Structure formats: C-alpha cells, structure tokens
Amino acid sequence: MPDVLAADAAVHHRPAVTELRLSAFGAHRAATFPLGPVTLFAGPSGSGKTQALAALEALARLGSGATLDRVFPDPRSRIPDRARADGQQRRGFRIGCTVDGPLGPVRLDLAVQVEPELRIAGERLSADGRILLATALRDPGRRTVQAAWLTGGSTGVTRAPLPDDRLGTALLPLRVAGATPGQREVLAAAEQVVVALRSVFPCDPRPERMRAPVPPGEGRLLGDCANLADVLRRTRHECGTRHALLTGAARTACAGPVHGLGVRTDADGLVTALLERGPGRPATELGRLGSGELRFLALALVLLTGPGVLAMDPAAELLSARQALTVLADGFDRCLDPQQRAELLRLALLCCARGHVRIVGAVGPETAAAARPVPGVVVVDLGS
Question: Beta partners for 359?
Fold first, then answer.
C-alpha cells in the first residue's frame, strides 16, 4: 500500500484545500472538516454529506468567477430550518476553507446573506494570523461591499468597493498592482486559494446518460460522464499508458473477460464505446453494462486521466505540474458491488499517492467501514 500520508506533504507544493468550514449551512453548525488526499464523508441520510460537498463545490465555482446567484440558485435551501433572523430580518450562512500550498496555510472565510436578498456580507483572506483582505457590507442600499487589503509601507491598507455578488479574492489580481511587498503577499495568497478552487472537478456519473452513442467532440469528460465514449476514443489514441491502466481496472470490476476498451464509429458518425472480450468473442457495447460497471469505469477514468481530459478550466497561469486536481464525487460508491468498491478505493489511493489528485467523496456505511483502517484515508463520520 502506498504511503499516502507521506505523499500529502508533497501535495502542499501544489495548492490544495485541506480544511472545510461550515456554519449554519444545511445540517452543519460551526463544523470543521479536515480534507486529506482521500476524504470520504459517511453518515445516515440527512446528516449533511451532500451539503458538505455542495459547499466545497460552491467555493470552487466562486473561485472561478461565478456570481452568487448562479452558485446558489436556491439559497434558502442551505439555511437550517430553525435558523432565526436577526433584528434586521437577515438570515444566511458561512462557508470557508483552508488552502495549503507554497505559502503555508491560507484561510478563506465567507459570510453569505440570503435574506432579505442574496449577497456577500463579508469575506476574509488571512495567513499566519494576519488579515490580507477583509470586506464588509456597510451600506445595504448599495450593491457593493467595502474592501480593504494589505498594502504595506506608509499606506498600510488600500480601501475600495467590490461587487457584493462575487468572491473578492478572485478579483484581487485585477485590482492589486503588486508594487509593494504587502501587495505581492496578498496576490500570492489569493493565487494559492484560487488555483486550488479552480482545480476542483465535481463528478457524478449518470449511467442513463452514458449508454447511447455520442457525437465526436474534443474528448473532454463532462461532469455527468455522458460523453464517456468520446473520451475513451481520445485516450485510446493519445494516452496509451493510462488507457492500459483503465483496461486493467476494468478486468477487476467488469463481469466476464476483458481484453480491452475500444470504440466504434458508426455510419452516422456517432461513437460507441466497447468492452473488447478477446479473439473470437463479440465485443460488448458499454451501453449494455450494469450501472455499477459504468460508474466504476467513469470514476476510474477521471482518476487516471487528470484535468487535461476533463471539462474544467484550471488556472492557466500556473503549470499543470504545480496543480492538484480535486475530484468531488457525491455517491462515490453508488451502485458499486464490494469488489468494485475495493478496486476503486485501491485505484484512488494509487493515484492520490502521486500528489496530483485528491478525492472528496460521500460513501455508504460498507465503504466507510472498509476504508477506516486504510492508511491515508480520512473518513469523516457525520451524525454520530
């Protein structure tokens, strides 16, 4: 078994989210969750597994520049049922994370006001106990927050308004010149956080969307993996080593003999993925496989390929070798049998030990029980 704990220290040369903080968010009250190379949330229905992953996805989308209303189309569903409004009839929630990287731990904390209207009420970016950026909602009549960021020297801080519907940390590179040591410190911290958040890929394979032939495209896997056949067409020709590893994993997880993973282009130009059964045996279209087999193949493909073949927009200003992909998988083990769950966990540990991939998933009790004694896996038990 690879020494994943030792590898985690190397991962921090690449920015990665290592802690998630939630307050008054769904089922969570002042909760702090450590995130390792492989982190699995477990607990009964309603304990907040999906909410935790949704919070990290929300931070990732905000870090990519999305507006608050697009990230939270139904923000009231995130507020606890019994949450009381303050004297000004305001209700909301708080989410935050810690990003480890070359600068050490950098904290991002966000207060979101949901009622009476959706807006960012406050944001804080800090490192080593020092506040690098702070915003606050000073005038409810204006669609801005008052921001102050470290400048250093005789000026101390710079103050300016920022939009109340976007993450201020993601806007700093457009507002800070980097002319002073203080400004450069702010920019470096913001870059570390934004790079980590933009490297998050939510993935929930949907077998019902993966069975039909697909038109050829650019071969970048969608979050629901509906274009799995097109991506296999690409990896078969461009990523021979990784494609071979995927074929090896399929031999363990798929029923019957597996000789390879192939594709067929029909007369109408559509691409169909095939499970090759070997000489003298007819191939099996992936659309005929069980839901567990399809979900396994899709998740294994995500782990083995990395951001180059995923439909995501990582930070282009930083070399891919200095970034760590974080895969968000709600229902990581959904539809999988014990053998498939064990093989997927083995594959996850193998890939995460290299430091380029991290996984945050929600799992059932059987997978959680099997994963608890495994070195390098963080199992977060909710509702206990």
Answer: 38, 327
